[in-house]
Specification:
The complex is a heterodimer of chains A (245) and B (427).
Chain A (H helix, E strand, L loop, with lengths): L1 E6 H11 L5 E7 L2 E7 L5 E8 L5 E4 L2 E6 H8 L7 E7 L4 E6 L2 E6 L18 E6 H12 L4 E7 L2 E7 L4 E6 L6 E3 L4 E6 H8 L7 E6 L5 E7 L4 E7 L7
Antiparallel strand pairs in A: 1-5, 1-7, 2-3, 2-6, 3-4, 4-18, 7-8, 8-9, 10-14, 10-16, 11-12, 11-15, 12-13, 16-17, 17-18
Helix pairs in contact in A: 1-2, 3-4
Chain B lengths: L9 H8 L8 H5 L12 H7 L12 E6 L3 E3 L6 E8 L20 H8 L3 E8 L8 H10 L5 E7 L19 E10 L5 H8 L5 H10 L4 H9 L14 H20 L8 E8 L2 E8 L4 E8 L13 E7 L13 H16 L4 E8 L10 H12 L3 E3 L2 H11 L4 H6 L2 H8 L7
Helix pairs in contact in B: 7-9, 8-9, 9-10, 10-11
Classes of the chains: A alpha+beta (245), B alpha+beta (427).
Chain lengths: 245, 427
């Protein structure tokens, strides 16, 4: 059983977070809330998302899994406006999810979850931790996008740095301690990442909201932030590029 | 979008920006279509016009012969374009002249010889005028949908002019002349095409793919597509031959790609190799999610690198999510993509594919993208070499190709992605 009511903004945020990575997901539902964990087809990035039941206006559920096509859900949610209340109800007999926005009803066929993997979170040792406002870093990412397809992120003592290099141009963004919320780096760390993937990970974060980054040396990056008024949490993992071989 | 929708590599952006200067790579980007050098006619293409092979053909105001069948839809002046039949001064079964699928065992000279006999009749129409009662429109469409060669007579208002016409995408043809009168005898429709033609609710994309699945040759589908034989009735129109070739290659490839993306990965690294018309083709398949790239290296003195002293290398690619802009290197990208998906669909497997092409100096004239499609198909019909690592597969590629491995990698987005981008399970 699954029967919930939620503000359309929260559902839209979830779609913006998941759909750049994967189209078909397994939505895990328990009495405590919902969660999604998925890896992109190239196995380069992972998203782990949870939203607690108290983020919903109404939430009644027993443990279950729903296979959802994010494109379909996105197409119906595009018709909602801010402030709309969306109700979600699982129809057991027809194996469909009923999405209601006002008087609009979409009955959405679900996907079989049998073949879908349960990705494991790799255990990583990422020594450096930086907390910053997403607006600080997103400018650097956008500047890098036009000159290269990858960028370097590094943490050294009290400075967080972003660097990108194209054929003729370079982009550099240095954020000293006073522009960061928090920084903790026992040693110098540096890794290289695809800009496409990385920009998709920071885009869903509202500009004033804090973003936590865990970084290592030639290791994946972990990006974390809260959603749904801190009643939900997102963790992204992105594997690095390693060019010196 | 995860992957760059603007897939023009930084190198190519730079090249496109400097095309006013006569850089050696200019011709490879232009291929006789964009007039980047500022001349009104392409000197590369012109060079071949001087061959005087068609003289006897252009001395008369009329021609009667067996059309393979073949038609040509021009692109200049769109949406007012010139349409019409192509007729050789030959009788009987001439189908080979317009069936590129049968040309791989021919030499370049043979192909040019028999193509140059095709006289093109022209008649200007609006592209949407497909249902016009004008006989030339009607007969041109019937010809394009015919199964076998059709006896065709044409009377021109002027003597045919021009020598051999070469294009990058389209097969070459002979001189052309404006039509005054044109008649065909007993055309018989290809039955699958006829069915799609009468289904005026069937979308052209579906029509194309159904025909392909029914085993109709791509050159036949493309011909019928170019005369607006498919699609929802009100959308039907003439499509310039050049565009129709790539439209068909791209539509069929895209359809198969949807399947490819859901199949399990291949288990090994594979390299297929084939040499055709002094073009060396190496197709590398990797156990990964679908990603695709075509890299072309043009040697000095080959078709699209006539003035350069160095080798020009160009690439276009897409990652799993596909691309939204037209491939920088043109129609050949879609021809090779179709060929690789054909194999993967047959095996029900997914792979990352890099097609490498070295055009050596023996490849002196442009003969159309069918060459790309059929050469890659031929390579993929052959035996592949199997490797357990990418390094070993690339070593084998470098034995077959002249260009050093490092240079291929430097010019390849997909190889760099595979070599440098780690996966989560690596940690």
């Amino acid at each position: 059983m699954f029967n919930a009511k939620v503000k359309s903004e929260i559902l839209k945020d979830i779609i913006d977070i998941i759909s750049p990575l994967v189209n078909e997901i397994k939505l895990n539902i328990t009495s405590k809330g919902i969660s999604i964990r998925a890896v992109d087809p190239a196995h380069v990035a992972m998203v782990d998302l949870e939203v607690k039941s108290n983020a919903f206006e109404e939430f009644k559920a027993k443990e279950m899994e729903l296979g959802i096509d994010m494109d379909k859900l996105g197409s119906i949610m595009r018709l909602s406006t801010a402030g709309d209340m969306v109700s979600l109800e699982y129809d057991n007999d027809a194996n469909r999810l009923t999405v209601r926005i006002g008087n609009l009803v979409r009955k959405m066929g679900l996907i079989d979850t049998a073949g879908m993997p349960d990705p494991k979170m790799p255990s990583l040792n990422l020594p450096a931790k930086v907390v910053l406002k997403s607006s600080e870093i997103s400018r650097g990412v956008r500047a890098s996008e036009s000159i290269s397809d990858h960028l370097a992120l590094s943490v050294n003592k009290d400075t967080f740095e972003l660097f990108a290099e194209g054929d003729t141009d370079t982009v550099n963004l240095k954020l000293p301690k006073d522009l960061l919320v928090d920084i903790n780096a026992p040693s110098k760390c540096k890794s290289l990442f695809s800009i496409d993937y990385f920009s998709n990970m920071i885009k869903p974060v509202k500009s004033d909201n804090p973003l936590t980054i865990h970084l290592g040396n030639d290791n994946p990056i972990q990006v974390e932030f809260d959603i749904a008024d801190k009643k939900g949490h997102v963790t992204y993992l992105l594997a690095p590029r390693i060019e010196s071989e | 979008m995860l992957h760059n929708s603007n897939n023009i590599s930084k190198n190519q952006k730079k090249l496109l920006a400097v095309h006013k200067e006569n850089s050696p790579s200019m011709c490879a980007l232009c291929r006789g279509t964009k007039m980047l050098c500022g001349k009104s006619r392409c000197p590369v293409v012109l060079k071949f016009h001087s061959r005087d092979k068609v003289k006897p053909l252009i001395d008369s105001l009329k021609i009667g012969g067996s059309s393979p069948p073949s038609v040509f839809i021009g692109r200049y002046g769109y949406p007012k374009v010139s349409i019409g039949p192509m007729i050789p001064p030959l009788m009987g079964d001439t189908s080979i002249i317009d069936t590129p699928e049968m040309w791989l065992d021919k030499s370049l000279d043979d192909i040019v010889d028999f193509r140059s006999m095709l006289i093109r009749g022209t008649h200007t129409v609006d592209v949407f005028d497909v249902e016009s009662s004008n006989k030339t429109v009607e007969f041109t469409r019937e010809l394009a949908m015919s199964k076998n060669s059709v006896f065709t007579e044409a009377i021109f208002s002027k003597k045919p002019r021009g020598k051999i016409a070469f294009y990058d995408e389209v097969q070459p043809h002979g001189p052309s002349a404006p039509l005054k009168k044109f008649d065909i005898t007993n055309p018989k429709y290809e039955q699958h095409i006829e069915k799609a033609f009468y289904d005026t609710d069937l979308k052209s994309r579906e029509a194309i793919f159904n025909l392909y699945k029914d085993g109709v040759k791509i050159s036949k589908i493309q011909k019928a597509f170019s005369v607006g034989a498919f699609g929802v009735r009100k959308h039907r129109r003439f499509v310039p031959t050049r565009w129709s070739i790539t439209a068909v290659d791209s539509a069929i490839g895209e359809n198969m790609m949807k399947n490819t993306k859901n199949y399990p990965w291949i288990n090994e690294y594979r390299v297929y190799y084939h040499n055709q018309f002094d073009n060396r083709w190496a197709v590398l398949m990797m156990p990964s999610e679908w990603q695709y790239e075509l890299i072309e290296a043009w040697y000095p003195n080959t078709t699209w690198n006539p003035y350069g002293r160095g080798i020009s290398i160009f690439n276009s690619y897409e990652f799993y999510k596909g691309r939204k802009t037209y491939a920088e290197i043109g129609g050949c990208y879609y021809s090779a993509r179709l060929a690789t998906n054909e194999l993967l669909n047959k095996e029900r497997r997914q792979a990352g594919v890099v097609v490498l092409r070295e055009a050596h100096p023996g490849y002196i004239l442009p003969i159309g993208v069918w060459n790309v499609r059929e050469s890659v198909r031929k390579a993929l019909r052959g035996q592949y070499q199997k490797f357990d690592t990418l390094d070993k597969a690339l070593m084998f590629v470098s034995q077959k190709m002249d260009i050093p491995l490092q240079r291929w990698i430097k010019n390849s987005a997909v190889l760099k992605n595979k070599l440098y981008q780690k996966r989560l399970e690596d940690f």
